[in-house]
Structures are given as C-alpha cells and as structure tokens.
Amino acid sequence: MSENNTKDLELLKEKISRLMAALAEVNFECQRLEIINSNLDFQLKEANRELNQNIAVLQALEEENEELKKKLREYKYGI
Length: 79
Hints:
Elements: H1 3-77
C-alpha cells in the first residue's frame, strides 16, 4: 500500500471514529428526549384528568346553584 493510501485510510478511520462518537451522542440525546417526552406526556394526562374532575365539580355546582335559585324564586314569590 502506498503512503498516500495509508494516509487516506488513517484519515477515513479518524472521520469514522468522530462520526461514531457523534452518533453515540445523538443516540444519548434521543434517549434523554424520549424520557422527557414520556414525563411530559404523563404530566399532561394527569393535568387532563384533574381538569375533567374540576369540570365535573363545576357542572355539579352549577346545577346545584340553579336548583337553589329556583327554590329561592319559589319561596320568594310563592310559586
């Protein structure tokens, strides 16, 4: 093998090594982002559950308020 080919081969090995290191970093970052995404998904689902519970409570309170207003009108006007 000529000296130029040897230099080219060494250069390619170095580039491949750097690319493999960069790929390992990208894979690590992807795993980190997947964990973050999973945590955010869990938090979003929990927030949606709480929101739905709060909506149900508000609807029940609204119905109770309407019933109380109706009873007050009946009491006030003797209907």
